[in-house]
Amino acid sequence: MMDSFTHRGIHLEYEVTGQGSPLVFLHGLGGSIQQIHGVYTLVPGVKLICLNQQGHGNSGADWESFGFDRLGEDVIALLDHLHLNKAAFAGISMGAAVCLNIALRFPERVEKLLLIRNAWTDQPMAEPVQNAYYDLGQALHRGGYEAFLQTEGWRIISGTSPYTRNAFTIPFQEDFNRENWQKYCILPGQAPVASLEGLREISVPTLILTNRNDFCHPFAYGEILSRYIPGSVFREIPDKDSDPAGHKEQINRAVSELMKGPE
């Protein structure tokens, strides 16, 4: 059941499902708690904690402070609200970047990490990806879908995979993405961590999942993160276009492994 709390004046939705060891699972840019439900099957003995991050779902947003630091602090505030000292963390894309931010700034709150389809390292997104998201945000703000089809951003996206094209068109059908268009213009130009060298300080078990054929989530980003996070496990999984069932199955296997150990 959806619940809510307030952090620094911003209303934030969250949901807790199941009983057991806490797992905070964070959605990607333009997603919501429903994205997590779409890829994750409840694991017995795991308390799943999901948050509609700022500008997503029915959560509010403070655009003056919007960024990875603020998103990470929201998650820590949720742990405090739930009276949890520590949790395992998993995230998809933007969610994975927020997890990295938390692991470096609040290491005492993190037990384990699962990073899925990384879209950032220690740098902003690649310039073509930033441009595509910026044009998406501006078209959501004014002009709509037809206006987006006339932009350089759409020209960039039109040559990518069906999954990526779909990810850039669905927001026009979603009220919360039309209303919170600013996030697409802000976050791609930011970085979740200050440097790759800082990742060497991460000392918790870390599993990194990535796939090929993904414009916004380069395969190389997962490889880079795995080289800097000590003891991390890097794993290639099927992409959503070629094998959506396999993609989901591998994510669920990774969650089970993270929370219960290898089978």
Q: What portion of residues belong to β-strands?
A: 15-25%
First and last CA, distance: 31 Å
Poorly predicted segments = none
Number of helical segments with 4 or more residues: 11
**H-E order:** EEEHEHEHEHHHHHHEHEH
* Overall helicity: 25-40%
Largest sheet: 8 strands, mixed
Number of strands: 8
C-alpha geometry: globular
Strand order across the biggest sheet? 1-2-4-3-5-6-7-8
What is the average per-residue confidence, as pLDDT, rounded to a whole number? 97
Our Rg estimate from Cα atoms comes to 17 Å
Secondary-structure class: alpha/beta
Describe this structure in words.
By secondary structure, the protein is of the alpha/beta class. It contains eleven helices and eight strands. The protein has helices spanning 33-39, 68-81, 94-105, 127-141, 144-148, 152-158, 162-169, 175-179, 182-186, 219-228, 244-260, and strands at residues 2-7, 10-17, 21-26, 46-52, 87-92, 110-116, 206-210, 233-236. It has an eight-stranded mixed beta sheet, sandwiched between helices. Strand 1 and strand 2 form a beta hairpin. The two termini are 31 Å apart.
Features:
263 residues, alpha/beta, 11 helices, 8 strands, 40% helix, 19% strand
